[in-house]
Specification:
Number of helices: 6
Distance between the termini: 36 Å
CATH topology: Rossmann fold
Strand content: 5-15%
Number of strands: 7
Radius of gyration: 15 Å
Number of domains: 1
Shape: globular
């Protein structure tokens, strides 16, 4: 991690693509403009791609999916870890990959995962914003903003609720 977004304390978004930026596993990234608008309001937020796309696309290709201003904020991809198979599924694999990335990069700042498959995370994992209903939307962005808020801002938001 380098530069402004490279500090170990920089806030990070671990981003899935299918089911988050598009409605399923095929089709255009119809939710990308919504994400781009939200990211403009989060200028210090780095992005790590945690999607399966990281296994079939280079980091350069993944960066080119974004505008140049946002592409420079894509700081990496999570590693591929072998999952612990339980009944044909892999137990909390995406969460473990995120944790492995944070450990190997010395990241200790705020972070959130935006993903549509909650099975890849421990139940009630505090860092997951679970996207439902065919792509990211306003409620998901509200949850992300709350998770990534500085501790003082988070306390004020909770007190106001």
């Amino acid at each position: 991690m380098e530069g402004l977004l490279g500090s170990a304390a920089s806030p990070l978004l671990f981003l899935d693509i299918d089911g988050v930026l598009r409605r399923g596993a095929a089709g255009p990234l119809v939710r990308m403009p919504l994400l781009a608008v939200w990211l403009e309001g989060q200028p210090n937020l780095g992005i790590v791609i945690s999607s399966e796309w990281r296994l079939t696309h280079s980091l350069g290709h993944l960066r080119r999916m974004f505008s140049p201003a946002i592409a420079q904020r894509v700081v990496g991809i999570t590693p591929r870890l072998d999952g612990v198979e339980t009944g044909g599924e892999y137990l909390h694999t995406r969460q473990r990959e995120i944790e492995a990335w944070r450990l190997s990069n010395g990241h200790h700042g705020r972070f959130a995962a935006l993903d549509d498959d909650a099975r890849l995370f421990e139940p009630d994992w505090a860092h997951l914003v679970h996207v439902r209903g065919g792509g990211v939307g306003p409620t998901d962005f509200e949850q992300l903003s709350a998770l990534l808020a500085a501790p003082a801002r988070r306390a004020l938001a909770i007190a106001a609720a």
